[in-house]
Write a structure and sequence with these properties.
This protein is an alpha/beta fold. The chain is built from twelve helices and 14 strands. The structure holds nicotinamide-adenine-dinucleotide (NAD). The site of nicotinamide-adenine-dinucleotide has 29 residues, from helix 1, helix 2, helix 6, strand 5 and strand 9.
C-alpha cells in the first residue's frame, strides 16, 4: 500500500496536498490538531477545511500535535514502510504571533519538524519528505538590496542581477529576523542535516507568499486571503507598514503542491528550493487592492496603519529557476488573477457576513 502522510492537513498547504495527492496514493494520512484556531481565534479556524478533507474516501485523520514525539512515533509506526511521501506543512505561520510566544513557536516549528524527521528515520527511512520552509529565514537581508520607490510599489533597481527573475537561493542568511524566522530556519537546517548526515530523502522548499481559496487569512498571517475576507464582508482591511507599497510574489498553494509531486518522483535529497509566484505573481498591497477591485467589482475599504512589522521587507520576488532547472515540467498553472478569483469565490460562498469569527469593524 502506498501511503502519503500530510501534516497540517486542515491548513492551506496541507489541505491542498491532501486534495491533490488523494488520487495518487492508496491512503492519505492527515495530521492536524486544529491549532490554527488556538493561534488566531475563530477567524483562523480550519474546521471547515478539515470537514472537507475528511469527506475524501481514502483520507484518515489523526488529531495529533507534532510537538508530541511519542504520539508521532506511534503514528508512523502504524504505517511503517508503506509511507512513501511525507508533506510536512503543520506549523505556526506568523512572525507577529511568535513575538509574544517564542517558546510555543520554536516547539511547534523547530521541535515539531525534528519529531517528524525522527519518526521518518525510525519507521520509513526511504520515504521522501518535503518541508515547507519560508523566505523569512533570510530576515531583513533583502531590505539591503538597492530599492527604488514608485507610485504604487517598492522595486529593485533595474540594474541589479535579481531584478529580472527575483531572488535566488544564493542570498545570504543574516540580518534581523523574527522568532518565526528563527524557528523555521532551525527546522530548515535540521531537515538539510537529516539529508546530508543521515541520508533521509528530504527537500526544503523556502516559500514566499502562498495562498489559495482555503487559506484562513487573518491579520497576522495570509494577507491576500485576509484582504478578500475583509472586502467580502465590508470590513476595513488594515494596510500595515510601508504605505502598502511592499511587494510580495503570490504562489497558489495548488502549484506549490505540484512542486512537491515533482520532487517526490525524482527526489534530490538535501536540496533547498525557492518556491514563489515569481515576477508574474508579484504585487504590492496597493496594486493588489486595485487588481482585486477591478477583477471582482468588490470595493476594498482600507486604512493605513503607521507601523512596520519587525523585519518586514519592502520587496521580495522569488526566483524559481533552480527548481525549474531540476524539474523542467513544472509550471505554475494559476496566475494571480486566477488565485484572487478563487479566493473571492470561496469567501463569498463560505463567509459573506463574517460568521467565521472576524470581529465587526
Ligand atoms: N502560506 C504561506 O504564505 C507560507 C509561506 C511560507 C511558509 N509557509 C509555511 O508552510 C506551512 C503551511 O502553511 P499554511 O499557510 O498552510 O499554514 P496554515 O496555518 O494554513 O496550516 C497549518 C496547519 O498546521 C496545523 N498545526 C499548527 N500547529 C500544529 C501542531 N502543533 N500539531 C499539528 N498541527 C498543527 C494548523 O492547525 C493548520 O491547520 C507552515 O509551516 C508555514 O510556516 C507558509
Amino acid at each position: 500500500m502506498d501511503v502519503v502522510v500530510v501534516t497540517g492537513s486542515a491548513g492551506l498547504v496541507g489541505g491542498e496536498a491532501v486534495r491533490a495527492l488523494a488520487s495518487r496514493f492508496d491512503l492519505v494520512v492527515g495530521v492536524d490538531n486544529g491549532m490554527r484556531r488556538h493561534l488566531f481565534g475563530p477567524a483562523g479556524s480550519v474546521a471547515e477545511n478539515l470537514a472537507e478533507v475528511e469527506g475524501i474516501p481514502n483520507y484518515r485523520h489523526h488529531r495529533v500535535d507534532v510537538r508530541d514525539e511519542s504520539a508521532l512515533t506511534a503514528l508512523f509506526g502504524e504505517y511503517g514502510t508503506d509511507v512513501r511521501l511525507v508533506v510536512h506543512a503543520a506549523g505556526q505561520p506568523s512572525g507577529e504571533w511568535a513575538a509574544g510566544r517564542p517558546v510555543v513557536d520554536l516547539n511547534v516549528n523547530a521541535v515539531g519538524t525534528v519529531n517528524v524527521l525522527e519518526a521518518v528515520r525510525r519507521h520509513c527511512p526511504e520515504a521522501v519528505v518535503v518541508l515547507t520552509s519560508t523566505t523569512e529565514v533570510y530576515g531583513d537581508v533583502p531590505d539591503s538590496l538597492p530599492l527604488v520607490e514608485t507610485g504604487t510599489r517598492w522595486e529593485l533597481d533595474p540594474a541589479h542581477p535579481y531584478h529580472e527573475h527575483g531572488v535566488d537561493e544564493s542570498i545570504r542568511l543574516g540580518g534581523n529576523r523574527t522568532f518565526h524566522g528563527v524557528s523555521k530556519l532551525a527546522a530548515d537546517l535540521a531537515a538539510q542535516t537529516y539529508a546530508d548526515l543521515l541520508g533521509l530523502r528530504v527537500g526544503v522548499f523556502r516559500c514566499g507568499s502562498v495562498t489559495g481559496a482555503r487559506h484562513a487569512g487573518v491579520e497576522q498571517a495570509g494577507f491576500l486571503s485576509h484582504l478578500v475576507r475583509s472586502a467580502v464582508r465590508g470590513a476595513t482591511f488594515p494596510v500595515i507598514g510601508h504605505g502598502g507599497k511592499q511587494v510580495r510574489d503570490v504562489l497558489d498553494a495548488r502549484d506549490l503542491v505540484e512542486m512537491f509531486w515533482h520532487f517526490y518522483r525524482d527526489p534530490r535529497p538535501g536540496e533547498v528550493y525557492h518556491a514563489g509566484g515569481g515576477r508574474e505573481g508579484g504585487t504590492s498591497i496597493l496594486e493588489l487592492i486595485a487588481r482585486y477591485e477591478y477583477l471582482t467589482g468588490q470595493e476594498v475599504r482600507f486604512e493605513y496603519v503607521p507601523r512596520h512589522r519587525f523585519a518586514d521587507v519592502r520587496w521580495w520576488i522569488t526566483d524559481n529557476r533552480k527548481f525549474r532547472r531540476d524539474y523542467p515540467d513544472w509550471r505554475p498553472a494559476h496566475d494571480l488573477a486566477d488565485t484572487l478569483r478563487s479566493v473571492h469565490e470561496r469567501w463569498v460562498d463560505v463567509d459573506p457576513t463574517g460568521l467565521n469569527g472576524l470581529s465587526a469593524s
